[in-house]
Amino acid sequence: MSAIDSRPAQPVEKLRFSEKLGYGMGDAASNFFFQAFNVFLLYYYTDVFGLAPAAVGTMFLVTKMVDAFSDPAMGLVADRTNTRWGKFRPYLLTMAVPYGLLGYAMFLGPDLSPTGKLVYAYVTYSLMMLAYTAINIPYSALTGVISPSSDERVKVSAYRFVCAFGAGWLIFTFVRPLQEMLGGGDEAEGFRQTMMLFAVLSVALFWWTFAATKERVRSAPMKPDLKAELGALARNGPWIALFVSGIFALMQTAVRNGGLIYYFKYYVGDDGTWVFSIFDMTAIFMSLGTVAMVLGVTLTRPLTQRFEKQHLMIALTVASAVITGVFFFIPADQYWLMVAVHCLASLIAGPLAPLVFAMNADCADYGEWKSGRRTTGLIYSGGGFAAKLGLAVGAGLAGYILALFGFIANQPQTESALLGIRLMFTLFPAVLSLLGAAAILFYRLDGALVSRIESELAQRRLSADKP
Fold first, then answer.
1. 155, 181, 251, 327: which sits with the fewest CB atoms below 10 Å from its CB?
2. What's the whole-model pTM score?
3. Torsional sign, CA 335, 341, 346, 349
């Protein structure tokens, strides 16, 4: 008789399609602003709102000091929440409207002095990031309690990112056409109207997620102990590896996406002329890349059934990084080659996001198994902080790179400025991706150990439920 019985103590409830889809809609709601910020916010601040690139870069970095406290604080608050709706779902209901209103406010573009504009950007961006924390940390933590099964969490994470990248596809494909049509040629008005539409959709989708989902993993009530919870997190080696990797991964996302509009406007020469129907070169590039990424997401579960998550994440990250680096050598007049290479890199990168969130859920199980404390909210808040820190540092770097290489908005660019834009879109993010892959070498949580943890935690919960 083996020492460890890897069979679950009780049958695992399979999640229905309606719940997996409903859960995924929450990340669609997040991405109506998240992806818009990734691709368009730096450009909006410099070329539309009229802020200096270096000032914007500094703002992105300075405001992250708030997140250094707000993200873990939100995780701790969520872990201590107990309602008839669960720990995490109530925040999807209550924070959706503030989230939508603040996202819209960021693009109002009031006519102020240069200093007034910068203050307005600081205030609205900081408040929006607080609202994002208050709704997205609980939403992400919901992955860890929607099912006790690692396999079910991989499935629901795949749905999540199909919906997330689906929303991303809508943004990448239609923001520029919508901006032109709704603004009537006024770029600032176009952004205002487009973001108002996204705000309404975000609120509705978060409420859908609240109504469609259920929390199934209930840990035994435990006296709050901040020192013990933070200590358990600090000893969670697999989570620390994901945390460090996440910083580099989102840095590369911010740097590359921050450079995308500049790359096509100033290097490729996209002047907004329609190439197909109402879509210009930039919109087609982003749209097709997102379709390829969605296809990549659908490969997540087949790949995780065949390969260890750690090995898979390293291999996909390295491959995507190499292809991104190759982009530097593509001439400006080879547009369709750019599209093809971008689609290949996006297809390969597709499974990475659902992998990360499924691995975070495994880290929550690991932490409970090792310490006896389940800190799902804290686990995901740490991951959320890593993501926002990476995005902020990456966006800050993008602003500084533009300033360092002599970029001047809405002017013909020097050779130096064009080089900076190309590096920002290609080689710099490739290097950051490789650093993220290196961190995952320290994620030592394989399938056999995950199965053992699931089985032992199921036995503990069953014993705790007995009178």
1. 181
2. 0.71
3. negative
What domain range includes position 313? Answer: 17-213+229-446
Q: Which two tokens stand for residue 381?
A: 């808040």
State pLDDT tens for residues 355-377: 887 888 888 888 888 887 777 77
Packing angle between helix 376-404 and helix 53-62, nearest 10 degrees? 160
Instruction: State the burial class of residue 434 (Cβ atoms within 10 Å of its Cβ: 0-12, 13-18, 19+).
Output: middle
CA angle 375, 381, 386 (to 5 degrees): 130
Instruction: Return the closest-CA partner of residue 320 out of 249, 243, 421, 240.
Output: 249
**Tens digit of each residue's pLDDT (9 = 90 or more) over 16-73:** 999 999 999 999 999 888 888 878 898 999 999 999 999 998 998 888 777 767 888 8
Enclosing H/E stretch for 179:
helix 150-183
Sequence-distant (6+) residues with CB within 8 A of 203 are 29, 96, 97, 99, 100
Residue 459 within a domain: no
**DSSP label of 45:** I
d(CA 389, CA 255): 13
* Cα angle, residue 222 at apex, residues 218 and 229 outer, rounded to 5°: 100
Q: By the 8 A CB rule, do 156 and 146 touch?
A: yes
Place of tokens 């693009």: 107
Instruction: Residue 337: give its domain's CATH number.
Output: 1.20.1250.20
Q: Provide the residue type at 153 as one letter.
A: R
The dihedral over CA atoms of 30, 35, 38, 39, expressed in degrees to the nearest 10, equals -160
Give 229 or 120, the one with higher predicted confidence: 120
Specify if 458 maps to a domain.
Answer: no
| Total tally of structural domains belonging to the chain | 1
pLDDT band at 8 (very low <50, low <70, confident <90, very high): very low
Q: For residue 11, tell me if it sits in a domain.
A: no
Residue 238's contacts (CB-CB under 8 Å, 6 or more residues apart) are: 359, 362, 363, 366, 443, 444, 445
- How far apart (Å, rounded) are the C-alpha atoms in residues 366 and 237? 10
Task: Give dist(CA 28, CA 303) in Å, integer.
Answer: 24
Considering the domain boundaries, does residue 435 fall inside one? yes
Note the pLDDT of residue 222.
58
